[in-house]
Structure formats: C-alpha cells, structure tokens
Amino acid sequence: MAAKPRILHSSKDMIWSLIPLLIICAIVAIASGNCSVGLSGQASDDKTPGFDVSAALKADARDLPFPIREPATPQGWKPNSGSTQAVGGTRVSNVGWISDVGAYVQLSQTDASEEDLVVHLGGGEALGTGTRQIGGKEWVTYSTPDDKKFWITDLGDVRIAVLSRGPDEDMTEIATAVLAQQPLPNGA
What we know:
seven-stranded antiparallel sheet
C-alpha cells in the first residue's frame, strides 16, 4: 500500500499515533511504583516519608528554655512534620501527624503568652469559642473563618496548643497524650 500524500495527513492521524504512546507511558509509571492513587484518605495512603517526632522534640527540649513533652503517637497515625518558629519574642515547637482518618493534627508548645500563640496559630482571625476539660486541664477553644480550630491550655511555664481541621476526637487524643507525659530532660 502506498503512503498517504502529505496533504492528506490530519490531526486524527496524530491522535491515533499518540494514544499508544500514552498507554505505554501509563504502564511504565504504574509498574515503576511512582504512581499511586490514595482512595481511602488514610494515613497509610501517604507516600511522604515519615518524620522523627521523637528526635525533633528531644532537640527542642535541649534548645528551648521551656519544658517540652513528647506524646505517644496514636495507633495508625503518621508523624509528618516539625519546626520551630518565632512567636511573641520567643519560639514555638511544632510537630504534626496525619491521623488515621487522614486529618492533619499539630501540637505546639511555647512559653509565649496565650494571646501571642492565638495570633500565631489563627493569623489574627481566631475567635474564642469556649472551653473544654481534657486530661484534668481546662483548654480554651478557638476557631477561624477557614474552619481551622485550635485549643490552648496553660501549664504555667508552658502553653500547649492542638490545632486541626479534622474531628475533635483526633485533637482530644493528642491533647490527652501530651498531658499524660512528663517534660523531656532539657539541655541546661
């Protein structure tokens, strides 16, 4: 069969040439394991490498002038982040997890005032929504217009905050876990 004259080539011919190439690319991506679809929304779906919360909190306990507590990681949760940031003339230690229902939960510990911590976590838009009792302590609850919520308790020499957009049960779980711990040894 003779080849088509160049004038008879159309975009249909190009599309029919690209389809097998796209199929081959998809097969290679799936076979290499570099492509996944997380359909369940669970922490186990996350391909992000884990974060060593224990090492981060121990380093913060050595470096920061206030007590740091290390909560036990709840079953099915994946530690995924940590940082220290400036707040109110001091610093705040932050660590975060992806809970077993796929929600991000952050734990913050600082010796800054509650007012400074509220501005830091809520971006100046947080409104107080009440209080709740968890682990024998009173937590002041806040929320922002973008559905972020956080709770803060004052232990005298440190303020502890739990932040999430997820269910209250996740926040309660980490709040209870952190209050159950004694402060880590400090570097002083």
